[in-house]
Amino acid sequence: MSEPAILLVNLGSPKSTATADVRRYLDEFLMDPYVLDVPKPLRTLLVKAVILPTRPAKSAEAYSKIWTDQGSPLVVISERTRAALEAHMNVPVGLAMRYGEPSISTGIDALLQRGAGHNEIVVVPMYPQYAMASTTTVEDAVASALQARGLRYRITRPFFDDPGYLDAMEAQIRRDYPADAQYLLFSYHGIPKRHLRKVDPTRSHCLSSPDCCSIESRAHATCYRHQSIVTTQQLARRLGLGIDAHGFSFQSRLGGGWLQPFTDVVLAELPKRGIKRLAVVCPSFVADCLETLEEISIRGRETFLEAGGSDFTYVRCLNDDPLWIEALAAFVRGTVPVR
Fold it and tell me: Which of 43, 157, 210, 225 shows the smallest number of beta carbons within 10 Å?
């Protein structure tokens, strides 16, 4: 029996930096009930009447700062990752984006055209830590598309604590981390606190106490905060970073009630604590994108330097690094599936 074909799925990107393309992308993204989890009439009002009239132009300007000649960094890097993994494993590997192109349907159809003879698809959500607005929506959208086609599939679990992922992250940090840096900040994409509670299978554990993430619970299987803390602790231990030499935070917040501490606030406060030479790594992203290249490497740098910092280093994402490709191949072949 041949090995299964593989489908990598990431978040997505606008087709271009044109405001109209960004508007279409944001409309699809924000109308997802897993992302903006309010009743549809309210979601429609917020998106169509409040967000889309102004946000696309601002987002288009941000995208223009990181766009490449080949297109969106996320899509370009993800395609390089797909090609490298396919060459490494010698099985068909497809690529899809939850929003934008290549869409899930487009990605599946392209994979099927090249994957004749493979009777199963392994789906890999490219998110190390589990979250409702990333992992859950990919799981449901891909499952629906594959079931409609009568295809067998497995969806992999999050890889936040996978040894290969941690090996690759450690190596990447060691490559980029300056010898004279004082502090390493682990910045994760933020999510609303209510998202933790909604996917908590116990309905009572997440955020029930300040130390809930250190108390053993089956809720940890879907707890983004717990998994982010585990990734941070594992990497800090491997790198020999003491408690005063590293920390973690959450970026990209929208409104109140999101996980704290906030990255932009931490960046402004660190110089006041005597941290002048800083490095920032973003372990919740495996490919560089708007949130890493513009939000952290550009705006985050400005925030830190304006607050009194002297040196800022952005640690690149894993992208298509060979060690990550090897780790991803081993993970796909050995992981315990979600479904």
Answer: 210
C-alpha to C-alpha distances, 237 to 155, 182, 242, 247, 314, nearest whole angstrom? 30, 16, 8, 12, 20
Cβ atoms within 10 Å, residue 273: 11
Which has the closest alpha carbon to 273: 308, 249, 303, 302?
308
Burial of 42 (0-12, 13-18, 19+ CB in 10 A): exposed
3-state DSSP assignment of residue 178: coil
Range of the domain at 311: 163-315
- Tokens 């933790």 belong to 196
Q: Is residue 282 part of a domain?
A: yes
98-147: per-residue pLDDT in tens? 999 999 999 999 999 987 667 899 999 999 999 999 999 999 999 999 99
Q: Are the C-beta atoms of 89 and 42 separated by less than 8 Å?
A: no
In angstroms, the CA 304 to CA 267 distance is 5
Residue 339 lies in a domain: no
330 and 266 together in one domain: no
pLDDT (0 to 100) of residue 256: 80
Q: Are residues 48 and 172 in the same domain?
A: no
Q: Same domain, yes or no, for 108 and 215? A: no
DSSP alpha helices (H): ranges in 31-99? 40-45, 55-64, 73-89
Tokens of 178: 């300056």
CA angle 126, 142, 105 (to 5 degrees): 105
